[in-house]
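Supplementary Note 3. Input sequence used for the single-chain structure prediction.
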Amino acid sequence: MSSNRFQSGAILDGIRRWVEIESPTERPDQVNKLADLVASSYRDLPATVERIAGRDGRGDHLVARSSWGQEAPGILVLSHLDTVHPMGFIERLPFRIDGDSAFGPGIYDMKGGAYLAYHAFRQICADDARAPLGITQLYVSDEEVGSPTSRALIEAEGRKAKYVLVTEPARAGGKIVTGRKGVARFDVFIKGAPAHAGASPEGGRSAIRELGNVIQTLESMNDLERGITVNVGVVRGGTKPNVIAEEAYAEVDLRVPTMADADELVSKILGITSRTEGVTVTVTGELNRPPYEKSNSGTALYEHARTVAAELGFDLLDVFTGGGSDGNFTAPHTATLDGLGVDGKGAHTHYEQLYISSLEPRARLLHRLYQTLR
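The predicted structure, written as discrete structure tokens, is reproduced below.
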């Protein structure tokens, strides 16, 4: 295997092309422009590309399948093309190189990793021998908002696969991810009765005061020892300072490490009721990503990857993380390994960067996984 097939400069050039097409989730036209480029990259390879039209204001999804091995369960590689950065952010964070870091919107989360998966596939196609398993690469357009239009596709492809590799970025020091918390989202609607705060306060029922009660109830569910976090991230309410608030609203994020925790906490939050007569509390929401718990098959996949990494000359450590990914949808039923993308830091920030030194080893790792999983 000649080293120039994994030369970091060439890989970085490819990543740069993907980064310089900005692709915020809420701009399907831009996501599709990037999808055009990605799809065209497979034209000269032994692969078919299926393009699934976007809906509900989201971009298209791409499914690239190797021309071999599709009759049996194989490897599914999950990547997303959307970023959290708004259009024009590239002016604030242009692609640039500083020492071992390359900067750009979405370069770490996760255009770097998405490109690595493609690059490793391209090298597999150039190998003398075919990989033992078929390889399917799924690029979705809406991961950053919870994958509402791609979830069914991810789950269907995940159930067909023997292994799932997720190219989300590595965690500090190149750690890969073997577990993630489940994520639930809730909306809290509170309806009271308005009144003049000075002239007739007794006639009012403050929705904001009741929201204070609800926030305290939600905050009391935090249990860091168990890894349960409840965050009231958005609140709104009222109209004027001299009017007792008729309405209030909150958005809530829940993270749980196990399905048992999810069942307990989701029903608790949905069951919150008003403590104040004449005020109603309505909570809607659900678990939108199940917990990715470490399974026996997932552990075996990690041990295999760790052995492969050791042969390539580096130690592959794993970590459990609070953030969700599309791996949450496949881990309950298929051996899943996450965080196989680039190493770096600053996801979703104005200093997002990948470490150039991570490109060659991470691309080689994916290539060897394609070669050795059977």
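The chain has a mean pLDDT of 96. Residues 206 and 245 are 5 Å apart (CA to CA).
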